[in-house]
Queue: 3 jobs
Job 1
Amino acid sequence: MANVVASVLPLHERTIPFLAHLEELRRRVIFSILGVMVGFLLCWSFADRLFGLMQQPIIQVLRHHGIGGGLVYLNPTEPFNLYLMVALVLGLFAASPFVFYQFWLFIAPGLNRTEKRYVLPFLISTVGLFLAGGLFGYKMVYPASLDFLIGYGGRFQPMITIGEYTKLFATIIIGLGLMFEMPILVFFLALMRVITAKWMWRNLRYSALVIFIVAAVITPTPDILNMCLFAAPMMALYGISIGVAWLAGARRERARVS
């Protein structure tokens, strides 16, 4: 009967819920952008000091290979653009709690009363995983990639521009930060019954193949070592995600029974 009533409603009345969701999404995106801009402004005051931390990997790799010098620029605007990029990337990490909270506010209306109480664990896990991914990229993946690239070009004198260096840095750090959110994504997909732990385990071989293909595409170097540096945490996160999917499925079943 409800379907019949809905079918005879005017089109504009049937599309109101969808338009309301779009409006809510637009609002959360705007708030998230404003939060990132606040983080950008806060980091802008320390942009030079933050860049000092950002360039440590390349300085250490150059010294390891007995090469002097540092980063260079070919365009007068590059130093200014560099500080903009540094402040923006680190401002994104600084504003990540606020951004993820906006994401929670967007999905919260679709959760039941019990699930809505998990806002604090959600924020702690999402922000923690995002920061852990960025830190893993900064400490492990980025230095290893630079070491391979500089060592492979040992016959030549490197002239690394600050623009290209910053782009590579932002790609790896932000990319790994987002990859580390896999368990959170799987949790919500499992709650929505899109996937199950059994399905993930049954397709482990295919998932491993996809993970290694993705790692080969996004890694900045063609060597197997750096590809494995990307793929290893993704495989570990996939294993954790199977457990997360099982917990989400068990929680859903308990809620259905009760």
Note: The radius of gyration is 23 Å.
Job 2
Amino acid sequence: MIHVVGHTAIDHILRVPRFPERNCSTFVSDHQVFFGGGAANIAAGIARLGAPVTLVSAVGEDFAGSEYEGWLRDLGVATRFFIVPGKHTPTAFVFTDEKGDQITYFEWGASGTFARQEAPALDHVHLATADPDFNVRVAEKGRSVSFDPGQDIIWYSADQVRRILARIRILFANRHEMEHLTRILEMEREAIIARVPVVVVTMDTEGSVLYTGGREHRIPVVPVKAVDPTGAGDAYRAGFLAATHRGHSPLTACRVGATTASFVVEKAGCQTNLPDWSRMAARFWTHFGDLPLPNGGE
């Protein structure tokens, strides 16, 4: 069982021609509402790919009986929720400009309870965006831990990051988050990579890079007609974790992640176009060749 810890949210996806300067405005050309939250996106992707997953998250009293609750149940996502009376489920407002750059405003809502909750002891756990202190405590109790700070990296102290890095075997970050990590820790990028057995850095349209065993592997993107980049990183992580659960190597898992992400960007919404394993495998074959047998090397 894979446990994913972090936010469940309602996503408001808005498109703007460009981000305004301070004290100025711009117009919104499109506004859609979807199921979201980094941890929930990853859990949904893992379940769609056929791996067992539990979502450890915080929701408001508005979540029970909602369409979102039914969606997760139908996907087969087990849930371990902190339900907070008087609070609503977190809400994300994601603005994307014509260049594909994004700015997110996140209303924590029920997620504020993470700081007050006792951390569970979990065997296989992925730490997505959530309260930094809660993630530290989960990491220190976990047996096999992966970490994805996401845009919440700005809330982590150097001590919190060091404590998590000391416990994890996989680190996920995009290029911007890696820059934040170097500043927070006052360390070179190479020194951070050397501290974790498996590091995956995603780089938008330039693909991703896997660092493991002292080697660097570059994984290209799977080219598709992209409609909305929101959720691509979460889908990548879902694909990687589902592939790892099946026994695939980190390199194959990265390629599965890239393939899974290619589906998500084809439609707006982080959970709108998640592939099952057979759809993913068919596209994988087109771009990377035969999917290696689990535990069979490359």
Note: The radius of gyration is 18 Å.
Job 3
Amino acid sequence: MPRRAKVALGLLVLYLVMPLDLIPDFIPVAGQLDDAVLVAVAIAYVARSAGRDVIKELWPGSDRGLRIVLTFASSAEV
């Protein structure tokens, strides 16, 4: 996996763990939506730079979950 993809995932994890968000989580729907969008964009970036095969190989969840994540990642591509 390219170093930039690893850095992007590391920054994503740091953002998700931080108590401060762009949109605070106590705001209904929008608070969680900004986190979900960032996750989809990061996965789309990793899929573009490292390839979908890497995501499939490293995915710890179910096949159905993988299909859902890759579908959302495809829609997040710019």
Note: Residues 21 and 59 are 26 Å apart (CA to CA).
